[in-house]
Amino acid sequence: MQVPETTASLDVVLAHYSLLSTENDRLLDLVRQLKRENASLRGEDADQAELELLLGLGKLEIQRQVRELPESGVRPRKQRGHGPTPQPELPVVVLEHVLGEGERTCPVCGDPTLVPLGVSTEDSEEITIEMKRVVRLVHRRQKYRCACNGAVVTAPNPHPRLVPGGRYSLDFAVSVATSKIVDHMPLHRQVNELQRSGLQVTKQTLWDQERALAEVLRPTYAALKEKIFESDFLHADETGFLLTEGKGSQRETLWVLSTNQHAWYTLGRKTFAAGEEILGGYSGIVVADGYQVYEQLSRAGPLRLAHCWAHSLRKFRDAEKHRPRECAQILKLIGELYEIEREIDALDLSAADTLLRRAEARVKRSSRVIAAIKAWALEQTGLPRSDFIKAVKYVLARWEGLTRFLEDARLPLDNNRAENALRGPVVGRKNYLQFRSRRGCEVGAILYSLCETARLHGVAPDKYLRIAAQRALQKPGTATLPDQI
Q1: The total number of structural domains that make up the chain
Q2: Closest by alpha carbon to 236, among 265, 273, 261?
Q3: Is residue 44 part of a domain?
């Protein structure tokens, strides 16, 4: 039957609609009758077959309407946001909900014998959090004897203990360490959380577990520094830590050495002797800020120094309010250096091709910008103690280190890698209210090193600590890096 033109009268349209509806109802009744007869011949439930048919027709109608929406000129409403985020890593627990015996009454006819609609269900998703569950595991080890009564053999415990004869598991210690190091949760807060889970424990007990874990992982900690020293260049930075041991307080420094995949922390004074002890023997390039200890180490050799352009950038930004026109000029030039690097990084190239392209860009483009920066710096004048002139002198005094990136395409423009590595300890420092003892800071340095290195490798820190500690317990002295799990 042909659909009438849109210019037809309303009565004609309604008449055609009535005819189409009548024909559609007749055909639907015929299909339902045939479906019931077919089900009866097969020995199946005719009512169930008819109901499944109606449900299927309803889905087809919805799909037809969706397909016809663009053709009719009506655009579907755009979904706001991005929809639910897939969570493939979460375990799935299926909860089945059924009607009780007294709830299976039809709301239409009152029949109390509702039956399941085949395997048809209505599913919805809900994400929840279970409270931390602490349990006591009883290891019941079977004992065996020989007929000769000469020996008794006990089945071994497959779970190694972090502390021989101790009460707490390795997983317990790993949980305490990652909560403190990764989530920045002080031990006294963990005590409160564990008490809500039913475990009565003291802060000293948690500290004992953290310390025991760090001792087992000490060989891995040493191997991390050796791995970093194998690199042709590394990043170095430091931040202050106040030790509140005893009646007074003592200021110490937390140093970090890092590469793109490894980080190593250690405690020491902010002195040349401490820097020499930490970086002594390294003959590569150290990317660092303008701290004088690095300058002294570079002059003493054998390491060479590459200075950070981000620190120069910040100094001119601080002086911008006093000399806006001049600072705008230098900030634009330094920005051009970073823009060249971003253009290279945005290319979809292999690592080798990226290095080659970056080397070419630095020779052809970055070197010209560097020449312009030096010419600009030599022209500047002002009060010797002003922030602006101090920033200019900072750049000129470290010119050799600031331009070293032109010699090696692998070198970055700044020391942000090391600064990022210090974010975790700095946040933790605020939460812990400093470390109470030198021993505590040493334990923190070991665990920070392993957790940050795991993060750089894309490995969950708790998983890495557990595996590395298990191997060290099974064979003392074993060092396990993240790429070995």
Answers
A1: 1
A2: 265
A3: no
